[in-house]
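Hi W., the nicotinamide-adenine-dinucleotide complex you wanted:
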Amino acid sequence: MVALVTGGGGGIGAAICARLAANGHAVVVADLDPDAAERVAKEVGGTAVRADVADPAGNADMVARALDTYGSLDLLVLAAGIQSDVPPDPGVDLVRYRRALGVNLDGVVFGIDAALPALRSAGGQVVAVASLAALGPEQANPVYALTKAAVVGYVRALSTPLAARGVRINAVCPGFTDTPFLGITGRLLRKQKIPLLSPDDVAAAVEAVAAGDGTGEAWALVPGRPPARYEFPEVPAGLRADGTEVVLKPFLSAK
Ligand SMILES: NC(=O)c1ccc[n+]([C@@H]2O[C@H](COP(=O)([O-])OP(=O)(O)OC[C@H]3O[C@@H](n4cnc5c(N)ncnc54)[C@H](O)[C@@H]3O)[C@@H](O)[C@H]2O)c1
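Structure:
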């Protein structure tokens, strides 16, 4: 099996690369930082590629590298992501806002677009690393929450059309995870003895979700508990003339 991991050069992505490689995957490590990608690729016996996921060309390059090196692609893990660094007060800093959407959201959309033909041939799948911030009000970082909520919405909306092409797609939604991503917040959380996930906790959940058979799911990850499939409420879409409720459901068959 061949896996391509964006953001594979550090933090959660690197842990995912290590776990997948240990369990028999050939791994393509894609990262904006070419040295980090090389380092992880060397550790896991995989292949490194420098790619900016915010750029469609970077996504095309990383998929081409997977196909050139290993001939197929079974699993796309979208782990590249950044803090927005946009404070929760209007108005937004336009440059930071665009960059956050570019990496966290465009990176998911463009990554799936680039990989879909190969995933389709392999009967493959996508796992997107969203965040717990997608599922609740992350008041300290609304722009980050916006990107991650959009990722979960996209995964859910795309799952039925992708199922029709034989491709599964799911999201994992980790809480605070002990990586450089947390910056100063990490120190504050540790000081307050707030438990953190390890990058390998998230990697284990990605692997478990990939080994399952669901699609369109979002899995909440918090320290000390097993991954939990998040139950979204049904969406009421109005009342018929006879008083019965209309509920939004996927309208395409999964087969
Ligand atoms: N650490 C947390 O608390 C936490 C919690 C929930 C979700 N997440 C999400 O998990 C994912 C991984 O986060 P992390 O904690 O490992 O962060 P990290 O900063 O430790 O690692 C992120 C990696 O992504 C790479 N990257 C950044 N921008 C990129 C780009 N444009 N193209 C390609 N690679 C790029 C970085 O070089 C780095 O190697 C992110 O999507 C993040 O939003 C993190």
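The beta strands are 2-6, 26-31, 47-50, 75-78, 125-129, 168-174, 218-221, 228-229, 236-239, 245-247.

W.
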